[in-house]
Design goal:
single chain; mainly alpha; 14 helices; globular
């Protein structure tokens, strides 16, 4: 038993499941925050919290961080744009003009986008079990989003906010694939720190303009606690866990497990904002989890040697 749980692959899958649980909580907390905090300000504050928390932790690696930025700044900037604060800003901007149900639907496109981009980018054809598992998992997500009536999907309407969020899903899929080539001279926390630093440099000016445009933002205790949560846990811890998992099982397997995110979102919504858990939720959960597990059954080497890097 100890050997099983000590397996790097098993630990990687556990890390990815924890990641999807943390991400699943973001929609609940962010929806509450967006009633008083505009999208760009939320994104900048979220990564600002991550930066502040990480600063004392990565201070001993400051020389390695400076060297990595000088040597690999283009690669780090690319990963920041597609997976850091700018990507978060896209999500929040789209969500402000859309609905939570459409966000859940668009999140479910990430595994498909990862497989398709991986096929075109790296020439990696989808494995049979991955394709079957992905289809089963996607059916579960659609069942939940359709409230047990697949015909309801025909009546979904998309606006510019949905298109913005779809763009955010696309760049996140690119980030997931590019993550396997991150600079291995940095520990996971140092890597996330650099992403937070670069992300703040890119988003703070725009967030400041939005802050002035809306006439300032009142931050009460609830708002501060919400920002602390999504910055320190839902962003910082989940990003490190996701990086850990991708480096050990590959981007495609990690992408398939993203389908668990709507499951956790529904559970959190039931527990914390009073939404009801119905039969179609349970059926959808079984399909989503079963498909994700099926898609990850066959072992294969990852596309990079990142697992050997610092952690």
């Amino acid at each position: 038993m100890v050997t099983i749980f000590a397996s790097p692959r098993t630990l990687a899958y556990l890390a990815l499941i924890c990641t999807t649980a943390l991400w699943g909580s973001i929609s609940v907390v962010s929806r509450a925050l967006m009633d008083t905090i505009p999208p760009l300000v939320t994104a900048a504050a979220r990564w600002g919290v991550a930066f502040a928390v990480l600063l004392p932790l990565v201070w001993p690696e400051r020389k390695e961080i400076v060297q990595a930025i000088r040597r690999d700044w283009k690669r780090l900037l690319f990963l920041t744009v597609v997976g850091g604060a700018p990507q978060s800003a896209l999500v929040y901007t789209g969500l402000a003009a859309s609905t939570a149900i459409n966000l859940g639907l668009l999140n479910s496109t990430i595994p498909v986008l990862i497989i398709l981009i991986s096929w075109g980018w790296r020439g990696r054809r989808p494995r049979r079990l991955e394709g079957i598992g992905l289809a089963i998992s996607l059916a579960g997500v659609l069942l939940i989003l359709a409230h047990g009536e697949f015909r309801a999907l025909l009546h979904l309407q998309f606006n510019y906010g949905d298109l913005v969020m779809l763009g955010a899903m696309l760049v996140w899929a690119i980030y997931t694939l590019g993550l396997q080539d991150r600079p291995q001279s940095l520990s996971l926390f140092a890597f996330v720190f650099v992403m937070a630093l670069m992300g703040e440099m890119l988003t703070l000016p725009l967030a400041a303009v939005q802050w002035v445009y809306v006439g300032g933002v009142h931050l009460g205790v609830g708002e501060l606690l919400g920002l602390l949560y999504i910055g320190a846990l839902a962003t910082l811890v989940s990003t490190a866990l996701f990086s850990f998992g991708v480096e050990r099982v590959g981007a495609v397997r990690a992408g398939i497990l993203i389908h668990l995110m709507p499951v956790f979102s529904s559970v959190f919504a039931t527990l914390f904002i009073g939404e009801r858990l119905l039969v179609y939720h349970a059926a959808g959960f079984v399909l989503v989890a079963g498909g994700a597990i099926l898609g990850c059954l066959r072992r294969e080497p990852v596309l990079s040697s990142g697992a050997s890097g610092k952690s």
